[in-house]
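Example 9 (inverse folding). The structure is encoded as follows.
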């Protein structure tokens, strides 16, 4: 069996020009500051949203040039530059506009493409800056450079770039009508997803899939196939999606203690869960107010897109 993702994962959408050439052309980037737009992200990674779009203020309100802590996100369709800063949120300029404060996990499904890209990028960059103020080489202080896309060691000039932790996420199926779903020890009852894990040093994505699934549920998988990827800036991951073949006759073995429950579920069972289950209800502290015996990942996760793409073949 082979299948593709039906849709682009929500956080992989593109709606703005990253304009990466401007990161090294500080004069050009600064020249666009006077009419640039500003995205504010608070310390809890929350942003202000209105009508399905992130609220962007006027960058010039911060001064005549970008402050050192601002990060350059690119250009939107009208050509205006967009920057982001960590700080308190401010109400929209239009007092009549309805707005709410949400983070990327809770708002990704209502964002338009541009907002999804801007907030995902800003969250990833600002989280990195929060934790990269000192050099890993010698502990010296580092300063932002290239519009916030690197940091430079103040002592020896060594340049560091945003760290990304790659992780694989994989749907294991039998090549026909059944797939594996599993529950981590820290998750509520009935909350299931597909299997995932971080890539180790010296390891390919495909090798990681085989190792992680063997470690987590004891299955030996074959025919590992790539599906797609999605940034996951919580705080700095990149989720790389796959599917692979497993044998339903092989018993589960929870070798690393992360998974406490797993099972083979039919396509019909998973479709029912997709239609009636609600991951967000469990995450919000609810008891999963649904008759479905499964609660599955919400739409913000690439896991949901992978599961739906397989279930509705």
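The amino acid assigned to each position is listed next.
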């Amino acid at each position: 069996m082979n299948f593709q993702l039906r849709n682009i994962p929500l956080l992989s959408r593109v709606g703005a020009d990253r304009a990466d050439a401007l990161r090294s052309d500080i004069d050009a980037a600064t020249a666009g500051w006077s009419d640039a737009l500003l995205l504010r992200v608070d310390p809890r990674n929350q942003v202000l949203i209105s009508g399905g779009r992130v609220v962007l203020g006027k960058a010039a309100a911060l001064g005549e040039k970008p402050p050192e802590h601002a990060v350059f996100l690119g250009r939107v369709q009208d050509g205006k530059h967009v920057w982001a800063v960590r700080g308190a949120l401010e109400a929209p300029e239009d007092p009549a506009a309805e707005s709410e404060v949400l983070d990327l996990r809770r708002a990704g499904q209502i964002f338009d493409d541009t907002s999804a890209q801007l907030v995902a990028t800003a969250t990833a960059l600002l989280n990195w800056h929060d934790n990269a103020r000192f050099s890993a080489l010698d502990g010296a202080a580092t300063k932002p450079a290239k519009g916030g896309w690197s940091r430079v060691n103040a002592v020896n000039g060594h340049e560091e770039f945003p760290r990304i932790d790659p992780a694989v996420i994989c749907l294991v199926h039998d090549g026909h009508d059944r797939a594996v779903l599993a529950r981590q020890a820290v998750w509520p009852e009935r909350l299931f997803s597909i299997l995932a894990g971080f890539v180790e040093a010296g390891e390919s994505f495909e090798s990681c899939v085989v190792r992680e699934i063997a470690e987590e549920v004891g299955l030996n998988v074959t025919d590992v196939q790539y599906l797609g990827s999605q940034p996951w800036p919580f705080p700095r991951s990149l989720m790389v999606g796959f599917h692979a073949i497993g044998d339903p006759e092989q018993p589960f073995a929870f070798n690393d203690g992360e998974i406490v429950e797993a099972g083979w579920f039919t396509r019909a069972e998973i479709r029912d869960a997709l239609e009636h289950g609600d991951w967000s209800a469990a995450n919000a502290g609810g008891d999963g107010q649904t008759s479905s015996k499964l609660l599955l990942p919400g739409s913000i996760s690439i896991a949901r897109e992978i599961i739906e793409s397989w279930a509705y073949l």
